[in-house]
Design brief:
about 500 residues, alpha+beta, 5-stranded mixed sheet, 21 strands, globular
Length: about 500
């Protein structure tokens, strides 16, 4: 064939081939945008380790602590869900961060939810706030600042700045998205830590093998709530996970706790670096410790992997199977209340003063420690007899995140899920402030009791507070209109069977 004819032949063939190709499918579009980001908030070695009523300090490093941000934008409204690898989130941090976010990005404060994972191996954000006891007596001031767990003012400033920086980064990564929602089930890593005893009371962690244990005193919530966001080509942008279990596995040193292994499991299984935003469920009385198990407890590192790995694996299963939608209704509701404190009796204050003035004993310091707390609480009741408490609901399509600022008993979370009209309801505790343990009314009754009901400077709201939070959250969800959950695409109508398989068995 002539060399001159060959190019002409190729052009003719290519042109004919192009005319035979089917029309290109229009690129999918979406009315919802999503952006995810994370920032580092790892504390320094030597900083206080929060989570107890006395002082403890970080001596080693295990893994990074983070601010984790999910941002959604439907063109009319933006909402932001922020998970912190911290024990709690102080109210001032929430208000300062919201004010800066509103100023810089025009996102109203009531559209921003900030929740703590409750990692007991994270940075110094509690229990005593800077300046909180400056007006107290010299004795109470010493008990607060020298003998109690204290937040670090510089770390709180850094935390606030990194929250704002995380929102900025999420804004910059925002893009059209496909959103999916789902629930998984994980019931092997979380247990109610309050147990019914033969004496009629309910005790917290009464000890494995204790012959006086009758049964668990409360429920767990085994649901693993998951939201996933993908770009229009199917690449994972980020995920949100909601599960109820204390972050007290403490793998050794500074750490996000078992949430670190939740993140590693999801990212490893999906071959992705997409951020994982964890929002803690109602776990005030739920931990990884099974007081009815006859088996020896795992070592901290193994325990962290076990809890985070199993919850993460269930989240992966949900992410891989959830239908996706290209639109999501966004809405918010918020109510702030002043909740009274429970006040110690004058006699208890006097008894506590005598005990503290006698000096800290050698050995068991339990009575001394809680006497210290009573004296500190007595001061707080005089200067702030009520505590500002916010309940917030953020809607993302068929999902509602219902927050409160408490270490919230699990039963309340189940009540909120039952009362909400949303297909996917995610209770979020320790959000937008901190008010300590908030048990059920039953826990304060004649068959109640346990660590969570103790009266301290950290935990002291009136016994009706938990029901108030639940009823308020449910009422706010009912002011909203849930969107339908995404459904998988339906198969085309039946035409004919597969000709390879529509035959009887062939024996020869």
């Amino acid at each position: 064939m002539s060399r001159l004819l060959l190019p002409l032949l190729l052009i003719t063939i290519m042109g004919a081939s192009a005319h035979c190709q089917p029309a290109a499918t229009p690129a999918p579009t979406s009315s919802i945008q999503a952006g995810f980001a994370e920032r580092d908030i790892t504390p320094d070695i030597g900083m206080e380790q929060p989570g107890g009523y006395g002082k403890s300090y970080h001596l080693t490093f295990h893994d990074a602590c983070k601010v984790r941000v999910a941002l959604f934008d439907d063109g009319k409204k933006k909402v932001v869900l922020i998970g912190l690898d911290t024990l709690v989130v102080p109210r001032k941090v929430t208000l300062d961060a919201r004010a800066k976010i509103e100023k810089d990005f025009k996102i109203p404060g009531d559209c921003v939810m900030i929740g703590a994972s409750h990692s007991h191996s994270s940075g110094p954000v509690g229990m005593v706030m800077p300046g909180e006891f400056d007006a107290a007596s010299d004795l109470v001031k010493r008990l607060a600042y020298e003998e109690s767990s204290c937040a670090d003012a510089g770390f709180l400033t850094r935390l606030t700045s990194e929250i704002v920086a995380g929102v900025k980064a999420a804004m910059l990564t925002k893009q059209p998205a496909q959103i999916g929602y789902g629930f998984g089930h994980e019931d092997k890593v979380a247990f109610n830590r309050r147990l019914r005893m033969k004496n009629g009371q309910s005790w917290s962690h009464p000890g494995a093998g204790n012959p006086d244990i009758l049964e668990y005193a409360g429920p767990i919530d085994p649901q693993v709530g998951v939201i996933g966001a993908w770009d229009m080509n199917g690449k994972l942008l980020g995920s949100i996970v909601n599960y109820a279990c204390h972050a007290t596995t403490n793998p050794g040193g500074i750490s996000a706790n078992w949430i670190h292994y939740l993140e590693k499991t999801i990212q490893g299984a999906l071959d992705s670096h997409a951020p994982v935003v964890f929002l803690q469920g109602a776990c005030g009385d739920v931990t990884q410790v099974d007081n009815l198990s006859p088996n020896r407890r795992p070592a901290p590192e193994e325990w962290s992997r076990f809890v985070g790995g199993r919850v993460g694996a269930e989240a992966v299963r949900v992410l891989l199977s959830m239908p996706k939608a290209t639109e999501a209704v966004l809405d918010v509701r918020q109510k702030t209340m002043m909740i009274p404190r429970r006040k110690p009796s004058p006699k208890r204050v006097q008894d506590s003063l005598a005990l503290v003035e006698a000096g800290k004993p050698v050995g068991d310091v339990t009575n001394y420690m809680f006497a210290k707390e009573i004296l500190m609480l007595d001061h707080l009741c005089k200067v702030t007899p009520e505590v500002e408490s916010e309940v917030q609901v953020i809607q993302v399509g068929p999902a509602a995140f219902v927050s409160n600022p408490a270490e919230y008993f699990c039963q309340f979370g189940l009540d909120i899920k039952k009362g909400s009209p949303f297909a996917f309801t995610f209770p979020v505790e320790l959000a937008n402030g901190i008010v300590g343990y908030v048990p059920t009314e039953e826990a304060f009754g004649p068959n109640g009791g346990g660590y969570e009901t103790r009266l301290t400077a950290y935990s002291n709201l009136v016994i009706t507070a938990g029901r108030t939070f639940a009823d308020t959250g449910i009422a706010l969800t009912k002011e909203m209109k849930p969107a339908p959950a995404p459904e998988a695409p339906k198969a085309p109508p039946f035409a004919k069977p597969w000709t390879y398989g529509n035959v009887p068995p062939e024996l020869e």
